[in-house]
Amino acid sequence: MSADASSNPPRPGAERDAAQPAPDALIERCLNGDQLAWEAIVRLYWRKVFNVAYKFVGRHDLAEDLTQDVFLKLYKSLDTFDRRANFQTWLISVSRNLCIDHYRSVRKERETINRDVDASELSPVSHDAAADVRLEQRDRVVLLRLALDKLAPTLRTAVMLRDIQELSYQEIADRLHLPEGTVKSRINRGRTELARQIQKLRDQQDTIPRTGVSG
Fold it and tell me: Looking at the whole model, is its pTM more than 0.85?
C-alpha cells in the first residue's frame, strides 16, 4: 500500500469528530491497501496531529510539514497498532514521540552548525581582538571555507542559504526553483557532509607536526 498524506491535506473544520477511535473496519481496509481508508484516517486526525506538531515547532508552515511527515510514519507503523487499544490514544502517543525525535534531531543539527559553521566566522577577522584570538579566528575561517569547498555545489548552496543566511525552507525553494522536500534533503545531506569534512580536516591537522619557537 502507498500513503500520500500530502495530497489535498485537510484543513481546520474539514475533519469529523475524532473523539472516537477509528472503526476497526476502516483500519482493516487501510491495512489491505485501501487508499481511501487512509485518507479518511488523515481527515479524522489531521487537527489532532497538527496540534501536537505545532507545540514543538511554533510555526504554522513548519507544523504542516511536520504533520505530513508524522502521518507518513504513522502509515508505515499502522500494522503495529493493537486493536484492543484506543486508536486515538495510540496515534497521539506515536505522533508525540515522532515530534520529540524530530525536535532532538533539529536541535542536534543546529548545535553542530552553530559549533562548526558560525556565520561570524565568514566575516573579516576583527582587528580589535588580541593577536592570538585573531590567529585562532583566522584558522577557523580557513577550516570552514576549506570544508565548504569540498561540498557539492548543490549541497553547499543549500547549507549556506539555510544556516548562514537563515532563509526559510520555502524561501530557499523559491530561490532555487525546487520542491521544498528536495531543499530539506539537500540541507540535511549538506550538514552531514560538512561536519564530516570539518572533522576530517581537523584530524589531518592533528597529524601534522607543529613547529615553532618556544619561549
Answer: no
∠ CA(184), CA(189), CA(190), 5° rounding? 95
Mean pLDDT by 10 residues, the chain (215 residues): 52 44 75 88 91 85 84 87 86 88 69 53 49 58 82 89 84 88 88 85 70 46
Q: Up-side HSE of residue 157: CA atoms within 13 Å toward CB?
A: 11
